[in-house]
Amino acid sequence: MLVVGAGPAGAELARLLALAGVDVLLVDRLADLRQAAFSSAALPLAAVERYGLPSAVVAARWSGWQLVGPGAQGRQWSSDQPLGAVLDFGALRQWLADQAQGWGARLQLGVTALGWQPDGEGACTWVRDGRGGRRAIRSRWLVDASGESRALIGEPSSCPGDPLVAGLGVEWLLQVSSDAYAAWADRLSFFLGSDWVQQGYGWVFPMGPGQLKVGVCRLHDGHRPQPPLGQELQKLLQRSGLAGAVVLDRHGGRIRSTLRRREAHRQGPLIGLGDAVSTANLLGGEGIRHALASARVLAPLLLQVWGDGGGQRGDTATPLDRYPMLLRRELGWRWSLSGRLARRTWLGLAHAQADRRLERLLAGLQTKRAEDLSALLFDYRFERYGLKALPYLLGWR
Questions:
Q1: What is the pLDDT of residues 153-171, one digit of tens each?
Q2: Could you give the CA distance from residue 183 to residue 201 in angstroms, rounded to a whole number?
Q3: What angle, rounded to 10 degrees, do the helices at 8-19 and 288-307 form?
Q4: Which of 136, 151, 287, 354 supports an S-S bond with 280, CB 3.0-4.6 Å?
Q5: Where are the beta strands (DSSP E) in 176-264?
Q6: Whether the Cβ atoms of residue 302 and residue 18 lie closer than 8 Å to each other
Q7: In the prediction, which pLDDT does 313 show?
Q8: From the CB of residue 117, how many other CB atoms can be counted at a distance below 10 Å?
């Protein structure tokens, strides 16, 4: 088994397969899994517990929400109990890879997948190592867990009813004073409205004493010019009072997902996993727990095929044919609704009229509890908001 990509999806799959005795080779283009650690990495506490994540990968815990905007207006919600955690994404990737290796998986870093082709009943994958050398790796099954780049499975087929929606994010890790940290600790803070980030949103997350993660993200709109994203981040830093902080790290990345997730999940012995099959949710740019969930769905199907002697030929019916359906069931029926809401909300935040529409929606959240916001933003339980949200969700106002 060859798994390309040692992010949350690929490393978790490698761990689960190795635990069951499967010979797994896990490769990643990074030479150090703690590098390029772009991810807002906020999770509900239930996800931390479900996936057994250790305290070593938890940067901070949070128990409240702060929504700022449109304009300068701020709203806060807090709970007496912790609601979630902000992860150290680099530490998470390293921990997952260490777990996989501990159960017998082989890990090779600095290896970039270049392409593949069917090879008998399996696959032949061409890779390049850090020294520029090229070689072929043959495997019975090949898993593309390379993220939104979809290095092997390729771009999803164009579908007018299910387009590939792209977003771009920039994030800085800041060193701040204890007083500055206290102003943002214990909560997730989001900045909404076109005067903060046009066609997107900003955030400030606590990352442990004296460190904050500040970022901006927006969806791509090919129909209108968009200001440079770095300019939007600088504006957020100025208005939030964090412009003078020491910058410890700068990173960025893309998010690309279809709304209904109808793309092909498999091409013979090649199987897509995680962001390669659109498990990053566009509403909050969240992908970690959904990537982990996709590995939990795929692993037992691969083990069932493996137990049948490696499975039949790639074009023959196997338990893997149930993979897309089971993954859609895991993500839930609210998935496409949250994607449509994200596209409508973020792309629409380009003028004052959209800000006023968002203002009315946020005003209705004022009477809710912090737990209700978590259910709304992490579980996409829009019914918690009530019937007042339906006109907005359906695009009637």
A1: 999 887 767 889 999 999 9
A2: 20
A3: 30
A4: 287
A5: 188-192, 200-206, 211-219, 246-258
A6: no
A7: 46
A8: 11
Q: How would you classify the pairing of strands 270-272 and 142-144? A: parallel
Distance, in Å, from the CA atom of 258 to the CA atom of 328, rounded to the nearest integer, reads: 13
What tens digit of pLDDT does each residue of 344-367 get? 888 888 888 888 888 888 888 888
For 34, the token pair is 């703690």
Phi and psi for 173 in degrees, rounded to 5?
-100, 120
Per residue in 175-201, pLDDT (tens digit) is: 999 999 999 999 999 999 999 999 999
CA nearest 70: which of 351, 338, 343, 282? 351
Please report, as a single letter, which amino acid is at residue 123: A
Distance CA 272, CA 278 (A): 9
293: left (phi over 0), alpha (psi -120 to 50) or beta: alpha
Exposed / middle / buried, residue 380 (Cβ in 10 Å: 0-12, 13-18, 19+): buried
Distance between CA atoms of residues 40 and 33, nearest Å = 16
Residue 328: name the closest of 260, 386, 269, 274 by CA: 260
| Distance of alpha carbon 86 from alpha carbon 40, whole angstroms | 8
Give the CA count within 13 Å in the CB-facing half-sphere of 179.
1
Answer left, alpha or beta for residue 241, where phi above 0 means left and psi between -120 and 50 means alpha.
Answer: left
User: Do 278 and 258 touch, CB atoms closer than 8 A?
Assistant: yes
The confidence band for 38, taking pLDDT boundaries of 50, 70 and 90, is low
d(CA 65, CA 187): 5
Residue with tokens 């164009």, as numbered in its chain: 158
Rounded Cα gap, residues 164 and 254, in angstroms = 12
User: In terms of DSSP bridges, do strands 188-192 and 200-206 run parallel, antiparallel, or are they unpaired?
Assistant: antiparallel
Amino acid identity, residue 151?
A
Of 384 and 139, the one with more pLDDT = 139
Nearest to 145 by CA among 270, 50, 318: 270
Tell me which H or E stretch contains 299: helix 288-307
The secondary structure of residue 220, as a DSSP letter, is -
276: helix, coil or strand? Answer: helix
CB 256 within 8 A of CB 340: no
